[in-house]
Write a structure and sequence with these properties.
Helix content: 25-40%
Number of domains: 2
Order of helices and strands: EHHHEEEEHEEEEH
Radius of gyration: 22 Å
Number of strands: 9
Strand content: 25-35%
Shape: elongated
Number of helices: 5
Largest sheet: 5 strands, mixed
Length: 175
């Protein structure tokens, strides 16, 4: 029995913002009072065009990161590609685990891999698109991890069955 979820950031609006920026850069470069000719563009090594392409490459790279979350009877395994390697947390390392409602902007300042606001370095979160419900894990060393979920009701049912079948008392299903 295993719960699997893979989440990606859906930042379609990033392409729109970068597109507006690209239009501004290219229109200033080619249509301004001192528009650049092809010879001048070759002399500066196509720098404005390379800059615009790099901006879109950055947006593409940002949209390709994802979080893989696997929960089973042994513990929790997660990977935030390309920033972290696969990490596992055994159930005996966990003090409590429960689903809770969170405020991505108010508590963590946004989406993606975040630390809690006001320099609380022991409280990390992996927040992606979803219904603002996530798995809160409190480790025995008082560090906290929050994983967002897009299938909160399925996840809640899975945790109830996992707690019952494997007698995992650290899972709180009545929260």
């Amino acid at each position: 029995m295993e719960y699997k979820e893979i989440q990606k950031l859906n930042l379609w609006w990033l392409y729109i913002l970068f597109g507006i920026q690209a239009i501004i850069i290219l229109s200033i470069t080619f249509l301004g009072d001192t528009g650049v000719s092809l010879e001048e563009l070759k002399e500066i090594y196509y720098l404005p065009i390379v800059g615009v392409v790099l901006i879109f490459a950055l947006a593409y790279f940002i949209n390709q990161n994802y979080l893989s979350l696997f929960v089973n009877k042994d513990g929790i395994t997660y990977k935030y590609w390309p920033f972290t390697r696969t990490k596992s947390i055994r159930w005996d390392e966990i003090d409590s685990a429960y689903l809770r409602k969170y405020d991505a902007l108010g508590e963590y300042g946004g989406w993606g891999f975040r630390y809690r606001l006001w320099f609380k370095w022991s409280d990390k979160a992996f927040i992606f698109d979803g219904d603002s419900i996530g798995l809160q894990i409190v480790l025995k060393n008082n560090k906290k991890l929050l994983f967002s979920t897009t299938k909160s009701e399925n996840f809640r049912q899975f945790l109830k069955v996992l707690k019952k079948d494997h007698h995992l008392l650290m899972i709180k299903t009545d929260v």
